[in-house]
Specification:
Elements: H1 3-15, E1 20-24, E2 29-33, H2 38-47, H3 52-70, H4 80-92, H5 101-110, E3 118-123, E4 126-131, H6 135-148, H7 156-171, E5 172-177, E6 180-183, H8 189-197, H9 204-221, E7 223-224, E8 227-228
Antiparallel strand pairs: 1-2, 3-4, 4-5, 5-6, 7-8
Helix pairs in contact: 2-3, 3-6, 4-5, 6-7, 7-8
Length: 242
């Protein structure tokens, strides 16, 4: 590599050390993060392929970017939207095909943050401890799920079923029957799947309600004048707004 190119790369690295401020409702304060760069935009756009695997890869790539740029290792999944929207506005502007991002950012302080990090679900002698996962924990599940899902069309239904199980798996921290307790973080993800699949259907209503509270919160953050923006490839592709 020539000295001129090396010199320019060093200068560009210094530019990328600049930071922007993101307001996190969960912390009720602003935190710093590096802005998006062109490679990260490319990774997001190219991560989405046809089918379920592309969706998983997009989510995993987005999480990795947030962790890398912020340098914060314990961000929870409810912290994701403030980072996504703020970094996108900084890099690509306020305009989307449907709403102005300034109005979405206003929601970060307007929408009440009432989420609980943990919950307990009981059924007979069974107890489940639920916990909001970090972005790192979510990525571990997404990686395993992507490996298990086939791209073959005839296995699409099986893939959707696995997505459902893995989504539940993100939030279940421990399983207790009588006095026996298993912390799911101590066992392999494949073993976690077997445990979750054996749970009685009766517990899923409460587990789903815990998850839905987070989904509803994210939806409220992204909604302006009854129009909800979607976080997908087009969100990071300005050519789609032309």
């Amino acid at each position: 590599m020539s000295k001129n190119v090396t010199s320019f790369l060093t200068k560009l690295d210094k530019l990328n050390e600049n930071t922007i401020e993101v307001y996190l409702p969960s912390l009720k304060k602003k935190v710093s993060t590096k802005p998006l760069n062109l490679k990260q935009q490319k990774d997001l756009i190219s991560s989405v392929l046809d089918g379920l695997k592309g969706t998983l890869d997009f989510s995993r790539t987005l999480n990795k970017i947030i962790i890398q740029n912020s340098g914060i290792s314990d961000l929870k999944i409810y912290d994701k939207i403030p980072f996504i929207v703020t970094m996108r506005k900084n890099a690509l502007g306020n305009k989307t095909s449907t709403v102005n991002l300034d109005k979405v950012i206003e929601n970060f302080k307007k929408v009440p943050f009432k989420l609980k990090d943990e919950a307990l679900v009981k059924f007979d002698n069974l107890k489940l401890t639920l916990k909001v996962p970090t972005l790192r924990e979510e990525n571990s599940i997404l990686t395993k799920c992507e490996q298990d899902i086939s791209t073959e069309q005839d296995q699409l239904k099986d893939g959707v079923g696995k997505l459902y199980i893995y989504e539940l798996l993100k939030y279940i921290q421990s399983v207790q029957v009588d006095d026996d307790i298993i912390d799911l973080s101590d066992v392999k993800i494949s073993e976690r799947v077997k445990l979750v699949e054996k749970l009685p259907l009766s517990v899923y209503t409460e587990v789903s309600s815990f998850i839905e509270d987070i989904n509803k919160y994210n939806s409220d953050l992204l909604t302006v004048d009854e129009e909800e923006i979607s976080i997908d490839v087009e969100f990071f592709d300005t050519s789609s707004n032309d």
